[in-house]
Every structure is written in C-alpha cells, then in structure tokens.
C-alpha cells in the first residue's frame, strides 16, 4: 500500500512539475514592429481631442483608424520644459504589442522654460487588433 501511495505521489509531482517553466512564451519577443513617430498635427483629430482632455495627467491611449493603429503615451504635468520621450522598443509577443518608452528630464546644457510642460508622444504602426502593453 505504501509503495502504491509513493508511486501515485511521484506521478502527481512529476505531472505538476512538468508544467513549470522558467520562461514564458507569452512575453517573449516574436518580432520587431516598424513604427513612425508623428508630429501632433499629423495625428487623427479624434486622438488629438482625447489627448487634449487627458494631457494634464499621465495617459496611455490607442486609436484605430483604417489601416493604422496610433499609440500615444503622455507623462502628465512636468515642472518645466526640456523633457523628451524616447521609444525604447516596439515588438510583438503572444500577448500583444509591447510599447516601451522613457521620459528624460532636461539636460544641464538645455535652455528650458520655467513654465509647466506636458510631454507626450504619438507613434503610428500598421493595424494591429490585439492589445497594447505599455512599459
């Protein structure tokens, strides 16, 4: 009887541990996605209006228009001018499209405005109907 229980427990553990992995295919990069950073004037009007409503606080927006997906990332109110945003990566995974950006503050040599600023960035990619993962 003990041998039977030991065998049963061993099979159970083997099956349970067999499902464990150290990496996930769902978050692994499948391929890079080509993108274009847009001037705000180039964005669809509906997206521009949504950004105007949200620009004071940090935001993450997507907008589908025809064959393109527009992705906007804003960092809300900043204490001065001179901030800029870089696109670190845009790629596909099994879970969706990953969009990574970084906000950088003014550099020491920059001449900056003392008035508040509201940095944001808009990129355009080919239409994608899955979810966008902001990082």
Give an account of the 3D structure.
This protein has one domain. Helices cover 20% and strands 36% of the residues. The chain is built from 2 helices and 8 strands; from the N terminus they run H-E-E-H-E-E-E-E-E-E. The strands form 2 sheets. Strands 1-5-6-8 form a 4-stranded mixed beta sheet, with no helix packed on it. It has a 4-stranded antiparallel beta sheet with strand order 2-7-4-3, with helices on one face. The N and C termini lie far apart (54 Å). 10% of the residues are buried.
Describe the structure in brief.
With 135 residues, the protein is an alpha+beta fold. It has 2 helices and 8 strands.
Could you outline the blueprint of secondary structure elements for this entry?
Blueprint: H1 2-18, E1 31-32, E2 36-38, H2 45-54, E3 58-65, E4 68-75, E5 84-92, E6 97-104, E7 120-126, E8 132-134
Parallel strand pairs: 6-8
Antiparallel strand pairs: 1-5, 2-7, 3-4, 4-7, 5-6
Quickly list its features.
four-stranded mixed beta sheet; alpha+beta; 2 helices; 20% helix; 135 residues
Strand content: 35-45%
| Class of secondary structure makeup | alpha+beta
- Strand arrangement across the biggest beta sheet: 1-5-6-8
What's the shape?
globular
> Quick one: biggest sheet?
4 strands, mixed
Cα-based radius of gyration, to the nearest Å: 23 Å
Rounded mean pLDDT is: 85
Please tally the helical runs, counting DSSP H or I stretches of 4 or more residues: 2
Distance between the termini: 54 Å
Please tell me the total number of domains: 1
Which percent range fits the helix content?
Answer: 10-25%
Q: Low-confidence spans: pLDDT under 50, at least 5 residues?
A: 4-23
Helix and strand pattern: HEEHEEEEEE
Number of DSSP E strands: 8
